[in-house]
Write a structure and sequence with these properties.
Distance between the termini: 48 Å
Number of helices: 3
Helix content: 55-70%
Structural class: mainly alpha
Largest sheet: none
Strand content: under 5%
Length: 85
């Protein structure tokens, strides 16, 4: 048996349904801040410096993730309990 339910709901209603915060004002303020920085430094525009405050935590997390993945054993490595010696 297969049951399908179609629900028409706006993104705002979905956020409220799941109890997620409304971040529209924060996003608007963030974009305005970025616009001001771009206009202030249009001649010496450096996108990396512009987004550095917002990406610093993300880049640190990515470095940690890469270290974690590189520390895992290769998928072809034999395990002690797999019956092969």
């Amino acid at each position: 048996m297969k049951i399908t339910v179609d629900v028409e709901i706006t993104p705002e209603e979905m956020r409220k349904l799941f109890g997620l915060p409304d971040v529209e004002a924060f996003q608007r303020q963030l974009m305005e801040d970025i616009r001001e920085r771009m206009q202030a430094g249009a001649e010496g525009y450096d996108p990396l410096k512009l987004f550095q405050p917002y990406l610093s935590g993300t880049l640190a997390s990515w470095d940690y993730f890469q270290k974690l993945i590189s520390s895992l054993p290769a998928s072809g490595a034999k395990r002690d309990g797999d019956g092969s010696k």
